Amino acid sequence: MKCLTIRQPWATLIALGEKQIETRSWPTSYRGDLAIHAGMQVDKAICKTEPYQSVLARHGYTADNLPSGVILATSRLAGCCGVTPQQAQQSWPGGNEYVFGDYAEGRYAWKLEGGVALAHPIPAKGRLGFWEYPVLEEEW
């Protein structure tokens, strides 16, 4: 299965359904199933700012108990679009989604759908870009 490593707290926000757009500096033509891997780094400072702190707390998380080094969710990468100057000026897409991403002009917004947190996260070493994890049906 194709995987993407994302730093914490953003990986957990995706797993919880609180973040449905991942922003990247590069576009992708890939569409399909995607495993979300929580990298080893946790941005503890941002976890203590709003709205991160309250959203994580609502689900029982703090900067100190976020999972790392595991595949923690699956999703479907449904689309990718470039952030236009107009969108960047209008703080698109708005709300927490805007705060949870980097929507600067020239970045790319990857639309994630149907995210499902795994009941038992799978330890894995992440990589840059897309990478493959040999999926065994019983693990998901």
TrEMBL record:
<dbReference type="InterPro" id="IPR015947">
    <property type="entry name" value="PUA-like_sf"/>
</dbReference>
<feature type="domain" description="ASCH">
    <location>
        <begin position="4"/>
        <end position="50"/>
    </location>
</feature>
<dbReference type="Pfam" id="PF04266">
    <property type="entry name" value="ASCH"/>
</dbReference>
<dbReference type="InterPro" id="IPR007374">
    <property type="entry name" value="ASCH_domain"/>
</dbReference>
<protein>
    <submittedName>
        <fullName>ASCH domain-containing protein</fullName>
    </submittedName>
</protein>
